[in-house]
């Protein structure tokens, strides 16, 4: 299966989407066999519930898809994804009058996402329920967005043994080749020679050399630089994580996976901009060459950084990449990273917290997030907290003591490396702990669809 709609078919089974408020009215307009079957099964059009109605030969006559109550719709996303997952294999299409607040594009997108499975190591069957693209949506665009999301999920779900810095580079190379983008990679000791000391420091203890992956695409329009944290596995370094915290650290390159998924969407849709993707790809490992607590290192920006926790490594590799991004003077820099546990405490796993000093960008993103069912939440660049990231013997502290406002202080740390550039930072989780409609347990994109919709307004495309 892939992230595409089914071709139109005369045998497609009609799906009637009905909300709870209009259930009785809808039933009054249907043939007696339909309402009798629904009553027999106690069907009430609850959110995400479906009922297959047979014809006189036992074949599928239609499907009734529950859109629920207003309260249920506020609490759930992608009702049609929940329904698609429960339907037998076949081809389906929406039919009849849809509920007033039914977003056909979003629900169709959710249907595509319901087909996603991570099958690299174990084959898991999909439902095989394929949807014919409704006439009133841009199906090519939705397929491109879904393909970008599938890429993000595949990258995050792949264990570090098969997704180290080398394999992450290979994935970017494949993406660049598909869309005729330019690619440059700086790795190993060359990072020191070309002044990327923090990227080298974090990754120097690993068996696979650290590297900075630099992809460019497009030759007209405003400039957008995406920077993604590519820590392919994070042991915590010498501040070793406990086993319970290390188990999900294959997802610590979720920032890189998200910007790659977003980049794929942008290139597939041929947005009229100049795109750059920077991914510092490293593994934070333990060996005789591991960096240590108390060490002080220079950065590309010239600021010195005192290491007070080797498990706060993501902001270090991003610092050099952001400084490099700023040198190009792009119109907008966006970083995405699975950066802090503090962000999860603040907003949970489902919301993607972000930081920006630009009110117009924030409004554009908030509007797009609602429209795309891709929730985000603005956090403050609270400048008075900058004192917390200023130690006594260096310019910056990578892990200030106290434990308060950890996501904010991390964001303030990163902001020091972009100067006056227009900048937005996402502190994402990139993971679903349990199965949800359109979002199975495992890696997930966060904020990328909202960004994709907001970027044309942000950059005045």
Care to describe what's here?
The chain has 461 residues and is α/β, with parallel strands linked by helices. 34% of the residues lie in helices and 21% in strands. The protein is built from 16 helices and 19 strands. It has helices at residues 23-28, 32-40, 70-75, 79-86, 104-113, 139-157, 165-178, 190-193, 197-203, 243-246, 254-268, 314-327, 341-347, 359-371, 406-415, 448-458, and strands spanning 13-19, 50-54, 60-68, 90-95, 129-131, 182-187, 211-217, 223-228, 230-234, 274-284, 296-298, 304-306, 332-337, 352-356, 376-379, 396-397, 423-427, 431-432, 442-443. Strands 6, 7, 8, 9, 10, 13, 14, 15 and 17 form a 9-stranded mixed β-sheet that branches. The chain has a 5-stranded mixed β-sheet with strand order 2-3-1-4-5, sandwiched between helices. A hairpin with a 5-residue loop joins strand 11 and strand 12 (304-306). The protein is elongated. 49% of the residues are buried.
Could you write a compact summary of the structure shown?
This protein is α/β, with parallel strands linked by helices and 461 residues long. Helix content is 34%, strand content 21%.
Mean pLDDT across residues: 96
Instruction: Please report the total strand number as a whole number.
Output: 19
Task: Determine the strand fraction and express it as a percent band.
Answer: 15-25%
The low-pLDDT segments are none
What class would the helix/strand composition place it in?
alpha/beta
């Amino acid at each position: 299966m892939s992230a595409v709609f089914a071709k139109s078919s005369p045998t497609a089974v009609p799906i009637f989407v009905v909300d709870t408020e209009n259930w009785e009215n809808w039933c009054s307009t249907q043939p007696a066999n339909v309402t009798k079957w629904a009553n027999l099964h106690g069907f009430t059009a609850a959110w995400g519930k479906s009922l297959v109605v047979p014809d006189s030969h036992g074949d599928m006559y239609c499907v009734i898809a529950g859109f629920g109550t207003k309260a249920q719709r506020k609490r759930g996303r992608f009702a049609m994804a929940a329904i698609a997952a429960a339907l037998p294999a076949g081809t389906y299409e929406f039919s009849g009058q849809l509920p007033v607040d039914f977003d056909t594009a979003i629900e169709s997108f959710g249907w595509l996402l319901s087909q996603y499975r991570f099958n690299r190591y174990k084959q898991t069957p999909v439902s095989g329920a394929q949807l014919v693209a409704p006439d009133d949506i841009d199906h090519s665009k939705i397929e491109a967005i879904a393909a970008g999301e599938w890429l993000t999920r595949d990258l995050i779900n792949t264990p570090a043994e098969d997704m180290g810095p080398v394999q992450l580079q290979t994935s970017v190379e494949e993406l660049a080749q598909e869309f005729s983008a330019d690619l440059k990679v700086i790795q190993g000791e060359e990072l020191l020679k070309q002044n990327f000391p923090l990227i080298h420091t974090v990754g120097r203890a690993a068996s696979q050399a650290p590297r900075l992956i630099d992809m460019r695409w497009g030759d007209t329009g405003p400039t957008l630089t995406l920077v993604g944290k590519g820590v392919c596995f994070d042991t915590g370094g010498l501040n070793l994580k406990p086993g319970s915290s290390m188990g999900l650290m294959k997802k610590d390159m979720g920032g890189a996976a998200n910007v790659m998924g977003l980049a794929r969407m942008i290139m597939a849709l041929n947005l009229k901009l100049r795109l750059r993707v920077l991914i510092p790809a490293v593994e934070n490992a333990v060996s005789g060459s591991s960096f240590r607590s108390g060490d002080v290192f220079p950065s590309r920006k010239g600021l010195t950084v005192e290491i007070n926790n080797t498990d706060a490594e993501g902001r270090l590799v991003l610092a050099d990449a952001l400084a490099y991004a700023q040198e190009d003077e792009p119109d907008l820099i966006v970083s995405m990273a699975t950066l802090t546990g503090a962000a999860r405490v603040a907003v949970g796993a489902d919301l993607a917290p972000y930081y920006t000093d630009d009110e117009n960008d924030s409004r554009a993103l908030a509007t797009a997030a609602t429209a795309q069912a891709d929730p985000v939440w603005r956090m403050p660049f609270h400048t008075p907290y900058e004192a917390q990231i200023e130690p006594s013997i260096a310019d910056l502290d990578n892990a200030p003591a106290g434990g308060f406002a950890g996501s904010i202080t991390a964001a303030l740390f990163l902001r020091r490396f972009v100067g006056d550039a227009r900048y937005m930072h996402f502190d994402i989780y990139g993971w679903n702990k349990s199965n949800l409609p359109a979002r199975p347990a495992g890696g997930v994109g966060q904020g990328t669809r909202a960004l994709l919709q907001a970027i044309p307004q942000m950059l005045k495309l």
